[in-house]
Amino acid sequence: xxxxxxxxxxxxxxxxxxxxxxxxxxxxxxxxxxxxxxxxxxxxxxxxxxxxxxxxxxxxxxxxxxxxxxxxxxxxxxxxxxxxxxxxxxxxxxxxxxxxxxxxxxxxxxxxxxxxxxxxxxxxxxxxxxxxxxxxxxxxxxxxxxxxxxxxxxxxxxxxxxxxx
Length: 165
Fold this sequence. Notes:
Oligomer: single chain
């Protein structure tokens, strides 16, 4: 289990994300790109925050952080000033990052549940198939005049299969 999957309140998220952005440059760069992705197309093109939609960079940060995000995206080096600006401004976006993380966790949980359901259905189908084969084997035994219905006689298909397992 990842640490944040056990968080039960926003204070835990806030503390974790702000600390992560302060201490982990890879996370800082990734977070900057993630918030940039949530800007509208027009906002990314104009390097401005045009809508009050609660996602992307705030108006006061949009121009500077958009330029930084573009440099990161294009794998261009940042100046020391740009790095310091990003490090100073990105922690205030912790709530957006929390929401993004929670959405991602929910999607992953749904995918795990769907995969488990598929696996369970395949297992049920396999059991149905074996049951059907067993019924057919018992019917064949009865047609051949063999009175065993429990897979214990030497001629029974069921017994032969159980010896293989």
